[in-house]
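Lecture 7 notes: from sequence to structure.
We start with the chain below.
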Amino acid sequence: MANNSNGKPTFTVSTDLINDATHVDNNDVLEEIVSAARATLAAGGHVVLNQEYENAPPDTVAVFRTSADFEKWVTDQNAMRTELGKPTLGNR
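Predicted structure tokens for the same chain:
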């Protein structure tokens, strides 16, 4: 976690990490991402999801500045996970 120019924490995570952890059912990694994101938002910071590339700068996929926005994303992810028969996130 880094601080942004306002001194607030920023948690940046790669969508590749989320996708890879989902693909191999590594729920511990996914739960840690959700936990770190919640802690960052609770501290007044924001969460950034980036798509990373080998030969180009990352693209920002989403920025969550409020807990409500992030929790909406978690709810959407859980709906997809339920459809796939996977456990839901954010229960710890």
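Points to note: The chain has a mean pLDDT of 91. Helices lie at 15-23, 27-42, 67-83.
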